[in-house]
Amino acid sequence: MDANQRIARISAHLNPPNLDKNGSGSDLRRVGCRAKGGSPGFKVAILGAAGGIGQPLAMLMKMNPLVSLLHLYDVANAPGVTADISHMDTSAIVRGFLGQPQLEEALTGMDLVIIPAGVPRKPGMTRDDLFNINAGIVRTLSEAIAKCCPKAIVNIISNPVNSTVPIAAEVFKKAGTFDPKKLMGVTMLDVVRANTFVAEVMSLDPREVDVPVVGGHAGVTILPLLSQVKPPCSFTQKEIEYLTDRIQNGGTEVVEAKAGAGSATLSMAYAAVKFADACLRGLRGDANIVECAFVASHVTELPFFASKVRLGRCGVDEVYGLGPLNEYERMGLEKAKKELGGSIAKGVTFVKK
Ligand SMILES: NC(=O)c1ccc[n+]([C@@H]2O[C@H](COP(=O)([O-])OP(=O)(O)OC[C@H]3O[C@@H](n4cnc5c(N)ncnc54)[C@H](O)[C@@H]3O)[C@@H](O)[C@H]2O)c1
Ligand SMILES: O=C(O)C[C@H](O)C(=O)O
């Protein structure tokens, strides 16, 4: 191909004749016009990619060398976000998909699907107050995943995670595609916060701190195991109570500070990428990838529970038990299980009814 042909080809993609008013023509998917195909790396879709989490998440995933193809799907503004991010000089090819008619194409062939689609909290709301809107969104997206990429790993960010993960599981069960190793609720932000707050209290570098956070992702279901912090730390009871309360209410702290403009987006995008990167390294076959996530579980009597999991080529290779708990943590566990059971049942019923 000579220089004129090359320029003509690129111009055709920048000014495609079939671009409709919303930018939703097939041209949008051809933003990745330099894709050669077959390049090493994983194919990742973000559903809700134009949102407060979706945009920084898309940017950070475009920077991840393990990603070869990045599909950005949203019901609004996907073309703008896709055009913007596609100019970053990193190797992942970016393609945008706008609205339900393009959902299946967005999902076909994906290795990992990350879902931050849905409404966020405003001050005074609980995560469960989002159920009425977000449950339906997650159900629809999960139905499309079951149809188009049933073997993909699915990372669910949309709240209430304690219910949206069971919703996705029920949809996959109905479709006959449920693989408990592949479905994960993203609770990494709780771990990120716990590491940060413990580091503050103990004057440590947060990058060296590892706090297991188990249970679920809402209020008392968020259970930091401060007795198992690495490096080992000795906290006073006052410090334990302060840290537990701050970790459990970290989301609300951000919701209130944003005063009606949404919930955590930037720290969440950071946490989501940290978790997605761990999933991709597991898929690649790296050893000893251990993170906390909300998964199908036999660790307690509940069918889903967040705990440490080992990520591998098939997704969750092993779900770890909780380890020794102190009395304060045992009490916290009972409270967490009580609330979590109801949230899981609510999600299951939503799909079964
Ligand atoms: N798991 C966590 O730790 C965690 C942390 C922060 C936020 N969240 C949750 O993530 C969700 C998104 O938060 P946000 O701040 O990005 O919200 P946002 O409103 O800024 O963005 C949501 C995006 O989802 C899109 N969307 C809506 N319906 C859709 C559908 N059917 N298909 C595809 N996209 C759709 C919207 O167009 C929007 O772009 C909320 O439910 C929030 O509570 C979870
Ligand atoms: O708090 C929220 O509503 C968002 C998210 O779950 C968080 O923990 O920041």
UniProtKB/TrEMBL annotation:
**What EC number(s) has UniProt assigned to this enzyme?**
1.1.1.37
The entry's localization annotation reads: Peroxisome
Q: What is its main location?
A: other
**Which of this chain's residues are annotated to bind NAD(+)?**
G48, A49, A50, G51, G52, I53, G54, D74, N134, I157, S158, N159, M268
Catalysed reactions listed for this entry: (S)-malate + NAD(+) = oxaloacetate + NADH + H(+)
Instruction: Please give the CDD domains that the UniProt record associates with this protein.
Output: MDH_glyoxysomal_mitochondrial
Per its record, what are the GO molecular function terms? Answer: L-malate dehydrogenase (NAD+) activity
Keywords, alphabetical:
Glyoxylate bypass, NAD, Oxidoreductase, Peroxisome, Tricarboxylic acid cycle
Query: In the UniProt entry, which residues are flagged as the active site?
Result: H217
Q: Which GO terms describe its cellular component?
A: chloroplast; peroxisome
In the record, the note on similarity to other proteins reads: Belongs to the LDH/MDH superfamily. MDH type 1 family.
This protein's name: Malate dehydrogenase
Gene name in the database record: LOC108855905
